[in-house]
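Re: the 361-residue chain
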Amino acid sequence: MAIDLNVENVSKTFGDFTAVREVSFAVEKGRFFSILGPSGCGKTTLLRMIAGFIEPTVGRIMIRGKDMAGFPPNRRPVNLIFQHLALFPMMNVAQNIAFGLQRRRETRAEIDRKVDDILARVGLPGFGGKRIDQLSGGQKQRVAIARCLVLDPAVLLLDEPLGALDLKLREQMKVELKKLQAEVGTTFIYITHDQSEALVMSDHVAVMNGGRFEQVDTPRNLYARPQTPFVARFVGENNGWKGVVADRQDGLCTLRTDDDQLFSAATHDDLPPGTPVIFFIRPEAIIIAPDAGLENFNRMTAVIQSILFDGANSRMLAMPEAGATELMIALPQNRQYDHLKVGDRVAIGWSARSAVCFKDR
């Protein structure tokens, strides 16, 4: 598979501050690649280096095999969409999309053909004559993308483009963007702090923290097999404890937490007894009233502190009777939990294989 974007050992410093540290990755042609991280982690700085607005301090950026060093933004085969779409309100949809083609001095007939074609590809046939203020938020997003795609970039860069939309529209646009990218086949590099956006839309996701990539993987692997404590905390919800390894045998560790509870967890790391660890278990992995006789299973009794109803995302907060760390537990709506109330004592548990454990560095 051809590589559209190759970033090799790129760092960027501003005085004494290092915004991006030794980042390397490659994106195959036609892929949806997301860079996910909290505010200030360096993801927008990295995107601006790819776009050509700033130069790396060290390292190089290759687009379709060509080193981009010294190439200004207008000479790079990329286009950039910001959160604020910057559509021209005095122009109609067709004029907005045609703007870049006119700057290239293409013929009128060719411009009209390309505008009509890209409007059909983004699902807006016949919208060329509409004013920008006649469009919904989602339609404006499509026009902004069409204005970039009509220039046939090798890579389309998107810097949190859904951030200004309301929740319902944002959920809808996540699906629409993924479908659109798959249809047009252009390589997308997507910047976001919203894990749901990254997981739903992407072929691969890089989780960024402190200027570095913590893990680059498929969405499924990031969620199910995080490689660092930061990824375990940042991607999805997790319950966590600190403690030490009390024993290890048969691929399982017995952990004694700081609030003096004993749990079993699977680990692939070499964690001898006495090793300080961080231990995570996801809310949906915790079973309410688990069946008896399950092997390698952690069990306890907890007191319900609060019930948080949110439809399919409903949660329960519970405090283990023998511990001091409150747990968040999923309440799947395919089972009846209407009988539960604050103050109830409930049996809970989870498989040791569902947990993830890291050395506490």
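The radius of gyration is 25 Å.
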